[in-house]
Amino acid sequence: MAQTAQARPDTQAPPALVRAACSGGVLTLALSNPPANALSIAMMKALKGALDRARGDDDVKVVVLAHEGKVFCAGHDLKEMTAHRADPDWGRAFFTETMALCSEVMQTIVRHPKPVIAAVGGVATAAGCQLVASCDLAVAAHGARFATPGVNIGLFCSTPMVALSRNVSRKHAMEMLLTGEMIDAETALSFGLVNRAVPPEALNRTVSELAQTIASKSPLTLKTGKEAFYAQAEMGLAEAYDYAARVMVENMMARDAEEGIDAFIEKRKPEWKGE
Question: CDD domains under this entry (predicted)?
Answer without folding.
Answer: crotonase-like
